[in-house]
């Protein structure tokens, strides 16, 4: 390898708390060559983001400090450099982009001004030259009309365009290293593919080195040269991607690869077709459903068809996945089924009864259906212990005797694999996975015929995702539940669901048995969706030249 | 510019609001116990004299009829005659509005001039000595009632140091301003603490926000991070708080104008209430109510200017 651009040796970061020192980064060492793309993977809390912040000495709390080790950038020591020198390093040498462009872009500042700011500060250009440079950067990151879009505000753009703007702001000061912290996690797969392609294109054009933090092994397999794996504050493994993926040395790396949902699973017994009694009444029977939302104010009225004529039938015991990008109407459909969103036209029958036929029916619906939400923390009441939360649901439902409630709470926790010790815990003291299990226990407390899970694993780490999906699989088996599973992650749906429904702009574009839809998609949109999922096998390239990639074909990894 | 379209049609919504205000003040004022004619003529007035005065001012007519007269006069640009001052209420208010308006304006400007730097210092030194001192001082600012604070300021600056007038209002611009220093300071000391607290809280949030992190990651020094990113984002909630407080301040001028003997609307209102001068109480209440509506309208315009995401 050529001389390293960035060399990190035994970097240690500690937290000075009330109970003494706690080591959060434990002697991390790695180096980064010019033009190299290093993938940094690990679950949340493993120290990936903290490591990135430490490299530019932007620690998220004043209680954190670098207690040892060194960071050298082209031979210059950064851990002891004066703050003024670090100002030039941040942005000027090492640029950063973040997971959530919506919260990292200044909402009250024009997009262009946020790019100009860095140019003026680092390159000392005057206002006019800086603006010209910013317009040029906006064009480079894919804004179709940069001179006009310079004056727009972040909220006027989609998530993907905002991420492009943030990349533009990071590039504004001509850094040599770009740290991208989960840059595509908040984006849809097709947009994710575009952003990754853009990053690789910029890397190729500017000779940038990139540290790409992600939890998705598929992304690292596709775009990185080397992979570093972090686990509990330590860098447990680093190596060339093919070697590492083929022969992982550390146990955590092995579990990470095993739980990656893009791996085809040969043994999927749970998906065996359920016996379908002919003439059985469907649990959910949706016919020509329209849900229209009014937009605009008093003077400029408009309407958006969030769900535009959907017909769908879900039989008892079925597991149906609904996939689609954000804004495709999948969550609205789910909310309509539960009677949470007013329907514009069409009918929804639950167990043969039209849910629009009165409050009594709605009450019946609420006693037989349950929802599991995306954000496990915010969906639980922070003031209630898990036990109280479950007892409340059981009491309100009134399906069992009051005296049996405590026993039933324990059973429910056993069912979701939490154990009875969690009866007295509050959400604050639980991990995301544990909270989601509690959320599922709450849904089961209703003793529902139908569970609707809306993006319920999207906020969880990959290894935890796999566990929750496994839990659903078990529960469906054991309790003959009907499950509607909404997700944007195609691989998870493929693993869990017998049938899949693909939604696009409020319409079902394709529907069928999972294996069939995923292996032989009939609709172009489904095919594009599947093609955009980064595969864990580096030899199945995601970034294969497409009509969008003409100039960046040489920027593709490998 | 379509975001500013509401400036054109929002005033239409004021009409029903103003109508409601007029009905409520009209009824409330007439619920005050006591007879204005008796107050005007003194305790030894004959029943005939009282009846004559009541007829002259229309006080013997039913409430509904009185309200119609009130509306008809309003359409003619009149608010009825003051029983005490014997001139039209609107003309009377016109002579008294300037000191009050200037007092409110000076108080608001002074409050903002105090609140922004104080909040900035506190937020940027969160938890340190400067922050603690500001917190303690501002607790005192909220705790002391304005009339007491006003008296203390008079004792200190007018009596002991003798650099500012004790009370009253001047005739020249400089004289007027000199008379307004202490009253404005009295109001600002309590108003600025309320503003500074809200602003500090927003700034502390802002300094920890992703926007600030991203700016630091671009190599921006702390001063740019603060003044260019944190401050503009912190102003929006404070503008609305300020608008609410100006409404409250209009009522507060009653106390301050009394303490400093400023010939403004507050003082007028107090005298009118004591002498059961219905028409004046009604007129002043209406002007205050309209002013509050107008101030909130202005605050909406400022909010739209500060935050491009807001649509009204």
From TrEMBL, chain A:
The keyword Protein biosynthesis does not apply. Keywords: ATP-binding, Cell inner membrane, Cell membrane, Membrane, Nucleotide-binding, Translocase, Transport. It holds the Pfam family ABC_tran. One of its GO terms (cellular component) is plasma membrane. CDD domains: ABC_NikE_OppD_transporters. It is a peripheral membrane protein. The keyword Membrane applies. It comes from the Bacteria. One of its GO terms (biological process) is transmembrane transport. Residues 6-257, 281-530 form the ABC transporter domain. Belongs to the ABC transporter superfamily. PANTHER family: ATPASE AAA-TYPE CORE DOMAIN-CONTAINING PROTEIN (PTHR43297:SF14), OLIGOPEPTIDE TRANSPORT ATP-BINDING PROTEIN APPD (PTHR43297). This is Putative peptide transport fused subunits of ABC superfamily: ATP-binding components. The gene is yliA.
Automatic annotation (TrEMBL), chain B:
Keywords: Cell membrane, Membrane, Transmembrane, Transmembrane helix, Transport. One of its GO terms (biological process) is transmembrane transport. GO terms for cellular component: plasma membrane. SUPFAM superfamilies: MetI-like (SSF161098). Its main location: membrane. It comes from the Bacteria. Residues 97-299 form the ABC transmembrane type-1 domain. PROSITE patterns: ABC_TM1. This is ABC transporter integral membrane subunit. Belongs to the binding-protein-dependent transport system permease family. Pfam families: BPD_transp_1 (PF00528), BPD_transp_1_N (PF19300). The chain crosses the membrane at residues 12-32, 100-121, 133-157, 241-263, 283-306. It comes from Mesorhizobium prunaredense. It is found in: Cell membrane. It is a multi-pass membrane protein. The lineage of its organism: Bacteria, Pseudomonadati, Pseudomonadota, Alphaproteobacteria, Hyphomicrobiales.
């Amino acid at each position: 390898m050529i001389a390293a651009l960035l060399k990190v040796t035994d970097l240690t970061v500690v937290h000075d708390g009330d109970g003494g020192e706690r080591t959060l980064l434990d002697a991390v060492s790695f180096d980064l060559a010019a033009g190299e793309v290093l993938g940094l993977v690990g679950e949340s809390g493993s120290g990936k983001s903290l490591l990135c912040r430490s490299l530019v000495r932007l620690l998220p709390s004043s209680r954190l400090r670098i207690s040892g080790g060194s960071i050298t950038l082209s031979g210059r020591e950064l851990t002891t450099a004066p703050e003024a020198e670090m100002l030039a390093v941040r942005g000027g040498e090492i640029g950063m982009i973040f997971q959530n462009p919506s919260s990292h872009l200044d909402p009250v500042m024009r997009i262009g001004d946020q790019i100009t700011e860095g140019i003026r500060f680092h390159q000392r250009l005057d206002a006019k030259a800086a603006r010209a440079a910013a317009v040029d950067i906006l064009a480079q990151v894919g804004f179709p009309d940069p001179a006009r879009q310079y004056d727009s505000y972040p909220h006027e753009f989609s998530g993907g365009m905002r991420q492009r703007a943030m990349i533009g702001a990071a590039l504004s000061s001509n850094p040599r290293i770009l740290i991208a912290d989960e840059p595509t996690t908040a984006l849809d797969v097709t947009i994710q593919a575009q952003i990754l392609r853009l990053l690789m294109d910029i890397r190729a054009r500017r000779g940038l080195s990139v540290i790409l933090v992600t939890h998705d092994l598929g992304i690292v397999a596709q775009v990185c040269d080397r992979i570093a794996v972090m686990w509990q504050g330590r860098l447990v493994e680093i190596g060339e991607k093919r070697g590492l993926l083929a022969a992982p040395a550390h146990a955590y790396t092995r579990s990470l690869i095993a739980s990656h949902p893009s791996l085809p699973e040969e043994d999927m017994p749970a998906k065996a077709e359920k016996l379908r009694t002919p003439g059985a009444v469907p649990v959910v029977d949706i016919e020509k459903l329209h849900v229209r939302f009014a937009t605009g104010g008093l003077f400029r009225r408009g309407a958006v068809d969030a769900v535009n004529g959907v017909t769908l039938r879900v039989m008892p015991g079925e597991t149906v996945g609904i996939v689609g990008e954000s804004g495709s109407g999948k969550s609205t459909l789910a909310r309509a089924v539960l009677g949470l969103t007013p329907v514009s036209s069409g009918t929804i029958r639950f167990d043969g009864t039209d849910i629009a036929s009165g409050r009594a029916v709605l009450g019946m619906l609420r006693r037989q259906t349950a929802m599991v939400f995306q954000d496990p923390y915010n969906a639980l009441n922070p003031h209630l212990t898990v036990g109280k939360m479950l007892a409340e649901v059981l009491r309100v439902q009134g399906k069992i005797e009051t005296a049996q409630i405590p026993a039933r709470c324990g059973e429910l926790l056993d069912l979701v694999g939490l154990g009875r010790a969690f009866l007295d815990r509050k959400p604050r003291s639980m991990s995301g996975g544990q909270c989601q299990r509690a959320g599922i226990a709450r849904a089961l407390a209703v003793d529902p015929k139908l569970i609707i899970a809306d993006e319920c694993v999207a906020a969880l780490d990959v290894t935890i995702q796999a566990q929750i999906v496994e839990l659903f699989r078990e529960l469906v088996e054991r309790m003959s539940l009907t499950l509607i599973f909404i997700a944007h992650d195609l691989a998870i749906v493929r693993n869990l669901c017998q049938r899949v429904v693909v939604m696009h702009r409020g319409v079902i574009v394709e529907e069928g048995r999972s294996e069939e839809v995923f292996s032989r998609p009939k609709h172009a949109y489904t095919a594009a969706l599947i093609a955009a999922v980064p595969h864990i096998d580096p030899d199945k390239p995601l970034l294969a030249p497409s009509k969008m990639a003409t100039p960046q074909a040489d920027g593709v990894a490998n | 510019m379509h975001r500013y379209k509401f400036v054109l049609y929002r005033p239409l919504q004021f009409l029903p609001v103003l109508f409601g205000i007029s009905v409520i003040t009209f009824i409330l004022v007439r619920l005050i116990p006591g007879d204005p004619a008796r107050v005007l003529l003194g305790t030894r007035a004959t029943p005939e004299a009282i009846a004559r005065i009541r007829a002259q001012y229309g006080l013997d007519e039913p409430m509904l009829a009185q309200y119609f007269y009130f509306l008809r006069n309003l359409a003619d640009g009149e608010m009825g005659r003051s029983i005490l001052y014997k001139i039209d209420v609107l003309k009377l208010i016109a002579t008294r509005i300037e000191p009050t308006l200037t007092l409110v304006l000076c108080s608001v400007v002074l409050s903002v001039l105090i609140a922004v730097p104080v909040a900035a210092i506190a937020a940027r030194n969160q938890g340190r000595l400067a922050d603690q001192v500001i917190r303690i001082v501002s607790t005192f600012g909220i705790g002391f009632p304005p009339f007491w604070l006003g008296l203390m300021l008079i004792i200190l600056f007018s009596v002991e140091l003798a650099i500012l007038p004790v009370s009253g209002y001047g005739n020249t611009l400089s004289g007027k301003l000199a008379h307004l220093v202490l009253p404005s300071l009295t109001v600002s000391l309590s108003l600025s603490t309320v503003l500074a607290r809200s602003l500090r809280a927003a700034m502390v949030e802002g300094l920890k926000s992703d926007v600030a992190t991203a700016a630091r990651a671009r190599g921006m020094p702390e001063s740019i991070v603060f003044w260019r990113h944190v401050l503009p984002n912190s102003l929006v909630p404070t503008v609305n708080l300020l608008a609410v407080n100006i409404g409250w301040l209009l009522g507060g001028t009653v106390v301050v104008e009394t303490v400093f003997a400023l010939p403004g609307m507050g003082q007028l209102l107090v005298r009118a209430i004591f002498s059961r001068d219905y028409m004046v109480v009604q007129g002043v209440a209406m002007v205050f109510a309209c002013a509050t509506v107008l101030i909130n309208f202005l605050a909406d315009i400022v909010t739209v200017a500060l935050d491009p995401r807001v649509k009204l």
